[in-house]
Amino acid sequence: ILVSESDTATAQNAAYTFSSLGYGYSPEQDLDVSLTETGLGNLGTRSIEVDWDDVKAFGGGVGFQGARSDLRWELGLEHHAELNLSGFDETRAHYRESYNATTATVSGYYDLPRKIGWLSPYVGAGIGVTWNVGNGMAATDLLNQAEADRQILGGQESSDFTWHVGAGASM
Predict the structure, then answer these.
(1) CA distance 142 to 91
(2) Are the C-beta atoms of 106 and 127 separated by less than 8 Å?
(3) Cα–Cα separations (whole angstroms), residue 50 to 32, 98, 110, 137, 156
(4) Contact indicator for 50, 87 with CB cutoff of 8 Å
(5) Average pLDDT score over residue span 22-27
(6) CA 121 to chain centre
(7) How far apart are CA 149 and CA 113, in angstroms?
(8) Torsion of CA 16, 21, 23, 24, to 10 degrees
(9) Are 45 and 33 in contact (CB under 8 A)?
(10) Is the pLDDT confidence value at 87 over 70?
(11) pLDDT band of 71, cuts 50, 70, 90
């Protein structure tokens, strides 16, 4: 779900700014984690049933509407704060990790020629890069004993290609 507020240009060859707030939900999934460097010896690979917390995002950017009033281009930046996962493996050890992600995209949009009341439908697509920063994974009861949190994976960073396609309506 994306809620966006825009100062859309009405004139041709005009720039505009936009802001966005987002909310996302991810269903439960399985994640395989190699536990070879935990300081406890090689514990092999564990399959963790993971739940992601709901995701909140905010962003903004600048856009440009050129000589053709039905085409728009945007440069956007969006931040997904505290993507938290929590899960258990087959031994009932509890795992936790959190991430932050920042995405920069270049997008193009085409306004469809048919208006629906005061709504203007559009289609769009974009490409960019996402920077992911993990804070490391911690586990409790890793050896099936009542034990405190143990850091089992250090924080990781990655840059990944990202893309999007979509359709919507603007006011």
Answers:
(1) 8
(2) yes
(3) 10, 12, 38, 12, 18
(4) yes
(5) 77
(6) 25
(7) 58
(8) 30
(9) yes
(10) yes
(11) very high
Contact 79, 105 (CB under 8 A): no
Average pLDDT score over the chain:
79
Q: Which amino acid is at 161?
A: F
Torsion of CA 157, 52, 47, 33, to 10 degrees: 10
DSSP lists the bridge partners of residue 17 as 62
As a residue count, the chain comes to 171
Contact 135, 154 (CB under 8 A): no
Mean pLDDT of 120-129: 96
Contact between 94 and 140 under an 8 Å Cβ cutoff? The reply is yes
> Residue 8 gets which letter from DSSP?
-
Question: What global pTM score does this model have?
Answer: 0.68
List all residues 6 or more positions away from 96 whose beta carbon is below 8 Å from its beta carbon. 84, 85, 86, 137, 138, 139
Structure tokens at 130: 């996402």
Confidence class for position 7, pLDDT limits 50, 70, 90:
very low
Strand stretches in 25-88, DSSP E: 29-34, 45-52, 55-65, 71-88
Number of H helices, E strands in the chain: 0, 10
Q: Closest Cα partner for 137 from 31, 54, 44?
A: 31
